[in-house]
Design goal:
The chain folds into 2 domains: 129 residues, Sandwich (Immunoglobulin-like); 172 residues, no CATH class. It is 19% helix and 41% strand. It is built from 6 helices and 14 strands. A hairpin with a 7-residue loop joins strand 7 and strand 8. It starts with a helix and ends in a 12-residue tail after the last helix. InterPro entries: Spore_0_M (IPR009776).
């Protein structure tokens, strides 16, 4: 009887341990590993064994944790007492347009045994979500041009994940370059806000919202030099003649109605939901921000602002 009571209190009960084959995976890649279930001092009936992918987001000065996906593994089993040890294979395909890990976005898998009238055994394993290879080549090319990531790089906005850079290249005197990344089968569109200083002793700051198109063929392996040259030539044209660079307008965002709104100007969808489908970081973004908007003051500030507005500071 005492053993049963202690097991219900979490002392000497069954344990669970998710063991991943790696601690970093690319978006769209299959996560693999195993779940090790070890018996305690008594047999315990288990309602469910689940693994949840959870996201921790920093919004201004708050950290908010949200379940991205819940993966059922086992249902209605009994874990025998020691020395019972069982290994259950685990696989899960990361969504292709999940936000990637950044200073303000973190991920982990929470593994849990649901035991009636007892403390549920839990396990948590952090995981880094990396960009796919074409996106990684784009980031690498940007950095080869002399751009450096700002502390806010990779923060979430209502429109997707935003990537912020400053230039350390005197040939590209750009004070700040922020962009949202939208993907189509043939082209990556960098929906950008570029800020730079123009002129000599009468120098003035310039700022434009521009659409920079990168053909997918330039993001293939072996095209690194052509990709860097394309980005450099495009930015030089923008600095020389910003008024003739393609501009964009984001579709309307309505807090509480994440998939509402209508596209205006140059866009690639007819509504917020369709627009977000191709955005890096667009997976569950509308639902996430709608839910946060009711509970977190910082999220309300974010939703009221522009996609390229605000300074979240450094999380770490």
């Amino acid at each position: 009887m005492w053993k049963n009571l202690l097991a219900r209190l979490g002392v000497g009960g069954a344990t669970v341990d998710l063991q991943l084959d790696r601690d970093a995976y690319r978006v769209g890649e299959e996560v693999t590993g195993k779940i090790v279930i070890s018996g305690g001092t008594v047999a315990q009936p288990v309602n469910d064994l689940t693994v949840s992918l959870v996201m921790q987001v920093r919004l201004h000065d708050r950290h908010v944790t949200q379940t991205v996906h819940r993966i059922p593994v086992l249902h209605g089993v009994t874990v025998p007492p020691k020395p019972h040890r069982e290994e259950v294979p685990f696989t899960f395909v990361l969504p292709a347009n999940l936000a990637i890990s950044s200073p303000s976005v973190r991920y982990g898998f929470r593994t849990q045994l649901d035991v009636d009238f007892a403390v549920d055994p839990k396990d948590f394993d952090s995981i880094a979500v990396l960009p796919d290879r074409p996106t990684e080549r784009l980031f690498r090319a940007i950095e080869q041009l002399g751009f450096r990531r700002k502390a806010e790089w990779g923060k979430l906005t209502p429109y997707g994940q935003e990537f912020e850079y400053f230039s350390a290249n005197p040939q590209l005197p750009i004070k700040e370059w922020e962009f949202l990344l939208r993907k189509t089968p043939d082209t990556f569109y960098l929906l950008s806000e570029v800020e730079w200083v123009r002129g000599g002793w009468l120098a003035r700051e310039m700022e434009r919202k521009l659409e920079i198109a990168v053909p997918v063929r330039l993001l293939e392996d072996g095209q690194e030099e052509a990709l860097v040259a394309h980005l450099k030539e495009t930015l030089e044209r923008v600095l020389a003649d910003p008024h003739h660079a393609p501009q964009f307008t984001l579709p309307a965002w309505h807090p509480g109605h994440g998939h509402g709104g209508h596209a205006h100007g140059h866009s690639h969808g007819t509504g917020m939901g369709q627009f977000a489908a191709g955005m890096v970081g667009g997976f569950l973004l509308a639902e996430l921000l709608d839910e946060l908007g009711d509970a977190v003051d910082a999220a309300e500030d974010l939703l009221d602002g522009d996609a390229f507005d605000g300074d979240d500071g450094d999380w770490l």
